[in-house]
Amino acid sequence: MIVVFLGPPGCGKGTQAKRLESSRNWPQVSTGDMLRAAVQQGTRLGNEAKAYMDRGELVPDAVVIGLLEERISRPDCKAGLVLDGFPRTDVQARALDGELKRMGKSVDRAVYFEIPNRQLVERLSGRRTCSKCGTMYHVIGNPSKKNGFCDRCDGPLVQRDDDREEVIMNRLEVYSRQTAPLIQFYSDRGILHRVDATRNVSQVESAIQGIL
Ligand code: AMP
Fold first, then answer.
1. What's the 59 CA to ligand 1 centre distance in angstroms?
2. What does the DSSP assignment read for the chain?
């Protein structure tokens, strides 16, 4: 099954994609994670992407489409996958359709995480990630036991460069301008399902399991 997670930054797509990865063994395909890995490795692609990411803007379609196509052609995506943060533009959505068609597949479900903007700013600015294992925390909602370090592996917790407040506002604006129209795109196909993303992680998870 091919599932697309749609929703603004901070709505909980990544957390839920990780849960599905554990429960169903469908890989979480996150273009954001792939781009951050490329930035960290200092590859040419990473260096090109960094400038866009730091400003909260979208990396050019051609770059992310190339990354995505390579990733979904790998054998671990055969049984299913969860797309987290892709597609983000109309061009990407159409490229995804084209690539899946070549593979004899199509998007089965699009899950839209509904949440008001004011909650997103708080969620994003308090978000912290373990730099070693990727476990996510929130300074208020879900703090680690030892301040600044991961409960699981003791790795240092870091704030994403683009989770600073001045960049957050731009990311939300970019989302509503470039990505929100995809809600209609998938609704027109009859495969859009809405979840109330203001609820807690377990409640959102059961709603998604119900949809799938
Ligand atoms: P995310 O982790 O999904 O919030 O993505 C972080 C940043 O990576 C975004 O603000 C964009 O700059 C870039 N990015 C991730 N996915 C895409 C995409 N599908 N298209 C364009 N830019 C992307």
1. 7
2. -EEEEE--TTSSHHHHHHHHHHHH---EEEHHHHHHHHHHHT-HHHHHHHHHHHHTPPPPHHHHHHHHHHHHTSGGGSS-EEEES---SHHHHHHHHHHHHHTT----EEEEEE--HHHHHHHHHTEEEETTT--EEETTTB--SSTTB-TTT-PBEE--GGGSHHHHHHHHHHIIIIITHHHHHHHHTT-EEEEETTS-HHHHHHHHHHH-
Q: What is the pLDDT of residues 151-195, one digit of tens each?
A: 999 999 999 889 988 899 999 999 999 999 999 999 999 999 999
pTM above 0.85, yes or no: yes
Pocket probe for ligand 1: among 59, 63, 82, 129, the residue whose CB has the most ligand atoms within 8 Å is 59
pLDDT tens sequence across 57-100: 999 999 999 999 999 999 999 989 999 999 999 999 999 999 99
